Amino acid sequence: MTFQLMKGWVKYTMRSAKGSVYQLGPDRWRVQIEAPRDANTGKRSRPSTIVRGSRKKAEQVKAQMLIDAGYVSISSDIDVEEYAHSVFLNRKKKLIAKGKFKIRTLESYEERLRLHILPYIGHVQVQELRPIHVRMVQDAAPTDAVAREARKVLSSMITEAMYDELLASNPVKNVRPIDESEYEPEQLDVEDMEVYLWHFKDTRVENVVLLAIGGAYRRGEIVALNAEDINLDTGLVVIDDALVESREGTIPETPKNHKARTNVIPAVILERLRETLPESGPVVTTLKGDRMKPNSVRKLYEKTLSTIPEGVPRIPLKNLRHTSLTAVYDATGKMDSSQIHGGHSSEITTKKYYVRPHDTQKCAAADAVDAFLRNEGLESI
Predict the structure, then answer these.
(1) What's this model's pTM, rounded to 2 decimal places?
(2) 248 touches 106 (CB < 8 A)
(3) Are 126 and 263 part of one and the same domain?
(4) Is 334 helix (H, G, I), strand (E, B) or coil?
(5) How confident is the model over 60-113, as pLDDT tens digits?
(6) How far apart are CA 347 and CA 361, in angstroms?
(7) CA distance 271 to 147
(8) Is 258 part of a structural domain of the chain?
(9) Which residues span the domain enclosing 135?
(10) Within this chain, do residues 204 and 171 fall inside the same structural domain, yes or no?
(11) Is residue 88 part of a domain?
(12) Which residues have CB under 8 Å from 257's CB, separation 6+?
């Protein structure tokens, strides 16, 4: 049945006791619910929103609006696809607003669900999930790395479902994990570091290389830095935010472990930064003087890296951070010094993914690295 509303046309209506979905046009829906009356005024509230996409998507939005309003509990026969969109991902979005979850992590979850989980088990009811469904996801993945990531997302979602009392246990734990070879990031030795510092000298990303090697900063942290964040007398650097690129554009966020940190740049690196840093504003800029975006930094780094002399390892930008943290450990012999220098919340993370000693706390780490580099022949840049 078709009838007129004040705005647009309605092809048909799907109603429930407390909410409705109206089709306004092709792939366009109005979702409206009856929220509880205001406790103080007694006034009715009928929040609504416009949804673009399929009818199922509109119903998922309605279900979540009702859950948020406190009207309904999650249906025991909800399938994996609906639970993923209506509950799991929506809860992660709310954590982003509270600064407890990263938008890039959410986007990676969405991608893994869309490509590697929902096509295979999206139709299965959550309460019916068994180890065989986990194996289906793992076996369908194109590589072991993708299988491991899909398994992590699935396990996280099932854990959420356990809190909702849809499952009593996590079937992922009853499936043998995929063997993971030890992560071995390629790094630079001191001679290679000197070549990099020479090769990137006077380029638009020289400050990126200096800060990555000297301070083990992440790309997003470097892009967010202003000259005012670096004390050129003491070498003290304050890292309290980062910039990341997402589907919503370039957005600010807290550092990876959600905590601001400080550390000190080694003097041999600081000497060059005194010459390259602007008096104020972003430490990395476009030709127009605007703050450079993270992806632009990566592309420009890779372009410059492609012309480095033959025989010198060509490592990704993130591996300069690995190099810096390993230099801290080589200089101090202390894993916790590398952990502090890198801003990790856990020494296990530093040891497992970053530090690879070659042969052998804030200010102490920087002084040790400076002495280490100088003793190896890196006197100036």
Answers:
(1) 0.61
(2) no
(3) no
(4) coil
(5) 788 778 777 766 457 788 999 999 998 999 889 888 877 788 888 999 999 999
(6) 13
(7) 46
(8) yes
(9) 100-181
(10) no
(11) no
(12) 343, 344, 345
